[in-house]
Known about the structure:
Chain B: Pfam families: DUF7158. Chain B: It comes from Acrocarpospora macrocephala. The complex is a heterodimer. Helix content of chain A is about 15%, strand content about 35%. Chain A is built from 18 helices and 81 strands. By secondary structure, chain B is mainly alpha-helical. Chain B has one domain (about 1-165): Orthogonal Bundle (Triger factor/SurA peptide-binding fold). Chain B has seven helices and three strands; from the N terminus they run ββαααααααβ. Chain B has helices at about 15-25, 40-65, 75-85, 85-90, 95-105, 110-120, 130-160; strands spanning about 1-5, 10, 165. In chain B, helix 3 packs across helix 4 (about 85-90). The radius of gyration of chain B is 19 Å and the shape is elongated. The model of chain B has no long low-confidence stretch (mean pLDDT about 90). Classes of the chains: A alpha+beta, B mainly alpha.
Amino acid sequence: MLTIDAVESTELFAGPDDAPRQILRVRTSADSxxxxxxxxxxxxxLTGVPGTGLHEIPVTTGAPPGSVLSxxxxxxxxxxxxxxxxxxxxxxxxxxxxxxxxxHYDPVWWNTQAGYASEWDALPDAQDVRMSFQFTAFQLIDAxxxxxxxxxxxxxxxxxxxxxxxxxxAFPENREIIGKLVGAGRLEIMGGTYNEPNxxxxxxxxxxxxxxxxxxxxxxxxxxxxxTAWQLDSFGHDPQFxxxxxxxxxxxxxWARGPFHQWGPTLEMGTYxxxxxxxxxxxxxxxxxxxxxxxxxxLTHYMAAHYSAGxxxxxxxxxxxxxxxxxxxxxxxxxxxxxxxxxxxxxxxxSPPNKWLTEIHRDWPTRYAWPKFxxxxxxxxxxxxxxxxxxxxxxLSPQSRDMNPIYTGKDVSYIDTxxxxxxAENELLDAEKFAALACLAGDAGYPEAALDKAWRQLVYGAHxxxxxGTESDQVYLDLLAGWREAYDLARQVHDGAIRHLAARxxxxxxxxxxxxxxxxxxxxxxxxxxxxSVPAPFRGLTDEHGVPVPAVVEGEDGxxxxxxxxxxxxxxxxRTYVLAGFPHPVPATVDPTRxxxxxxxxxxxxxxxxxxxxxxxxxxxSLVDMATGDExxxxxEAGNEIVVYEEYHEHPVFREGPWHLLPTGASAGSAxxxxxxxxxxxxxxxxxxxxxxxxxxxxxxxxxxxxxxxNRVDCVTHLDGFDGSDQLLRxxxxxxxxxxxxxxxxxxxxxxxxxAHPDVDAARHPWTLDNPAYxxxxxxSMARVSAGAAFGVAEIVVPREEDTAELGRxxxxxxxxxxxxxxxxxxxxxxxxxxxxxxxxPDVRIVIGGPQDNVFAAEVLxxxxxxxxxxxxxxxxxxxxxxxxxxxxxxxxxxPDADLRAxxxxxxxxxxxxxxxxxxxxxxxxxxxxxxEVACAVDPGEPAENRxxxxxxxxxxxxxxDTEGRLHLSLMRSCTGWPSGVWIDPPRRTAPDGxxxxxxxxxxxxxxxxxxxxxxWRDAGVVARAHDFSHPLRAVVEEAHDGPLPATASLLTxxxxxxxxxxxxxxxxxxxxHGRGQAEPGSxxxxxxxxxxxxxxxxxxxxxxFVTAALADVLEVETGEAKTRDGALHAALAPSQIATYVLHTxxxxxxxxxxxxxxxxxxxxxxxxxLHNRGSGPIGYQPMSVHARLDGGTVHVTLASDRTDIEAEGxxxxxxxxxxDASPADQVVRLAPGDWTGFDVTLTPPGEPEPGPWPVAVQxxxxxxxxxxxxxxxxxxxxxxxxxxxxxxxxxxxxxARWTVGLRNTARFDIRGEAQVISPWGTWDxxxxxxxxxxxxxxxxxxxxxxxxxxxxxxPGTWWLLVKCMWFGRVSYSPAVPMVIR
Amino acid sequence: MIAALVGETPITVETVxxxxxxxxxxxxxxxxxxxxxxxxxxLRRWVTQILIAExxxxxxxARRGIVPGGPPLELTPTARLELGSVMAAVLSGNPLAxxxxxxxxxxxxxxxxxxxxxxxxxxxxxxxITYEQAAPGxxxxxxxxxxxxxxxxxxxxxxARATLLPGFEHPGDIRHPDHTHRH
Lengths: 1382, 183
């Protein structure tokens, strides 16, 4: 009996390479051997194969790929003959699958930095959700390196500086093999970034510094050649990211999350983590050109099957099964590949080398000629993609698509860390500017060490499991300490720099007494509010000419008065104000010094008039823009309303908590009950209104202030008593503008965004479309058509796929420059706009080509009126630019279950003409003013109202604008979903009420403001106003003195004001990042960006002339000349461009005054800093490091240099336990750049040693600090050897106190280390300093004193304090105790 | 109630629960994930895999007439990582498994060319050491890796043939609801 059981076409080919034969798989059953023959449209045969089994018959055919051929299979043998018909789909040879071995690494998430880096096995509480294959970074690097040492076919990648730096320093004996593998093209150092940051939750400068520290370490210190931004897991991306990375010298990017929901195009409701789904619903290929608003972009590979796509073959039991798994993945992924190259990432979170990878690499070519399966590096893949494009002349599709939102919960979970990050980032940017200006002014040394560490801590915290709020409770506290450290370092530099400058001002005019020097960190003149503490009693204020300036005292005691006034300050400069002293009071105006109650519910200034309704919770029922007369509040609705949304504990299907917003659809708002109080006040400075109320257990206090001369509505909402679980709090401003669209600022740009669905039940509609905004979001227009409609997110539909670059690229770039992100598709492919699939939605389609060119245009133009109008235009020789309004309104189409793929769902702009390229070029040119002239055959409907309402925020990035025009600001949430509450190093700590920290059960203050104006956001000047709101004026108080600087001056001026934003100004170069010593003084880096999508020319000038200038990349490497004239930089920016310049002065004097810290407060510095969960490394970044390992009675010591420029020298000392001897005990070590050395120290115990454990310290004195590693002999002490005891504290505003922390050393050895005072954002100016050295003698008690100084104006509330002690690689946390301000 | 079948031999739910209880009473017992949680169920699945592997080891040892003996097998972290957590757990505390490991992998050899290639590719490890001095250590390292791989592949394939009942799937199987790769 002989049967043919199956005939199956494959895409496999037998060799030879240049004459490949496609393989037909045939399954037969017979007892004896058979011969097989294929005939018909393809031919081939096999002889003498077993009768039963699967046979692969190579066949030949002349038919082109894609043809479906009929074949007949004949099997014959002793058991008879059988025939079976079959079909063969002709496949294409020439494909290559690049199997890239990697492991994805999160330095912090539910486990700690120490746990993930090296200590996971030693942390019992970190085993819970560990998967059986997951290991620490050190174990993984070892395992990958060991395999690479054994197996010459093994290639792999390493990426994160978070593990590279510790490993590079702690195991310098592996430096050589790492360098060798890199050089041999077997190891690729990936990323060119420090980590995988969530760039959509930080400013663009933090993203730039991520590249500075990434490239600096990976390229210069480690010797890699990073070329690919390797952002595997980031939850979405900042739109400017690809352009910034291109400017950092990277040539490609690869990542898994952005255009579709969290698991990519294969995600379906009800499924979870499906690695092998079908991606063919994508609208574009997995390789594309990813374009920024700046117009720059990167060749990008989107990991459509996620970053762990190829990992699952590890569970195959046999090599053929593993190969079949890869083949299956190839068949799916090739559907969306742009070239005949498929990248398959082989690895997942903390995964060891895949067990089949190199076996496949060796075995597969013995079986098949095509496709090739190779163990390869990403660079091999990108080189192959580029080579094929060059060879075929094909071009990648241009995509400026917004790669957001992903994981909407990330914008609001642990909101205090986002507030802290923003504050620290702005403090640091301002500190950097004034420090550079202080150096320009003379006699100051640039505080590179302090700024370097602060930036590194921010870059560390920008990781996608840190700033996103998805971390465990313990990790939250560790991170919070890092943000505080960055903030404190920046604040110290900021204060030091402006004090340095103020001390050089000649402010004697006005006689003896005190001066207030007010500093403006922005490069345009400003009128804004400033708060400052001055000596009491306050007697009045004048400007430098003696003209009285109204000021209000907000608090006063015997010593100090806290005053507020509105100052007018020049561009990036200062102004001197004179404090009136006895006996020369300023002539009294009408009681100038206090707020006075007025019996009203309306307040006003020249810009706005605002009314609250006490019956509706004190919400804002009217807000009138006085310039336009527009009522901004939607009739009948109430603004500034707090809304509490109930949430699920975790998503019912996806099981995700902190990173997913989980509203159930139930909510309650503060406007539904009367306010408890409403109080309006007036002063010469302006008017304000304070409302209080209750919403459940929450007590709220909202203050709205209208300052005279300030064109903003300044608001703060204080929340107390929040004790909710699984609740989300939003703030709502209903400000409908007919036809306007949601817009939001992102890093150094503004983009359009889709309407959101804040009120859905996430079980049914998981995609609320909340998005992160940088400083502001609002309702406005990104671009408009002359027919009146506004749009912000586009799908560009070209006729055929091969046209995407040719016809779509220039338009995509110009739209992106105008802030309209676009997905470039083709008429015959998939449409963009299905919310269950796409991560966001378009609001317009731009169709290139008429009905003859473009099949989608034919569908759109089905209505003969449109077709006739287009024909008329073209016949008349007019531009074929036609607007076709949508068939339905946005409220109808932009629903939680939106499917906008049909022709009538969105308005369509048709661009047609005999020469399509010329027609597109005309529209591109027409976009210069963000308005496209169009014809329209039908009534285009009501034009969009051309005005803007924006909400500015201070670190509250999450927003949602619904189709009713309600602007929602996400305030905070209390998520109980895993890993909320997880704690790794026992005992577990909680907030004082016993809740997890993720629940945020303490007092919070949220600062935001409203801005409005006629026209779009550009006309309304929102970008500058948002910067103003983010960078409050800062003042210095001192006695009058002489000095070289004038009383009022601009230190740096950009003209025309506001048309180019000075984003950073600093000393040129980042020496620590690159392993170098101090930079040459006298050179400065200025980075500017164009904020409005316009071409602009500007000049940048300073009090000190810039002799020469150069254009530079974001790493501050000079790339070309820039023009200077009369000491000023003259340059031009393209729309939304970000440009870096290096400016040279002719001063090269190194100033002496220190503006910041250049050594850690706690010495010695523990070298294995990651064991302290301490972030990115100590001040100086351990340019020379010491590490010790104990082996019996011998300590192996290694010393390694990360200097790249000069020899490093250090003094080494071994400190053995008392009575023990160590040999050698001290020596001087010199290391060439990048070199290391090692030696053994022999320990000799005394005759009768006391029982251990005993610490052995190996200390290295280098660069003004002492670094030490400590190992223990005679056992290992627990963290509990040091007990940290704290007491609750309660204080009143104005009160000063000392908070005492009890330290008890229960060990037999002395403990030294450091302590960090950890408290939530909002309290950092109260208790300090943040970092303290500690030293507690064996068996004794000590105390640590923390100064508490409550400002007079502090608001009452309840927070918490705890102390984290770090010593010899151990971490001990005190309980968290209440800190109450009465 | 049966959790899994290894050939004809059942592994009962009671056996699984007893082993889980034993772990819970062990030194780190209090730190194990609680019953009734997804992680608790994953622990049960992992323990099932251990029991399956132990049964396979016992069956094969009986078939080959192997008895416990020989020096204890030391596993470095990298070795454990190469073996996978189940095989590492079975091998580390089980003299019978160690004896079987030795017997099963006894025939593995490392060709001289591989040793010399390793020596020349990894010169950073052999500064000032001659090939003759280094070769025995290299041979032992390469042999260890090869034997571990052979044993792990053999055992994995055998384990995969076991029949698993609902609730006792392989913990790494992405199809069951407790598989958590939660972002």
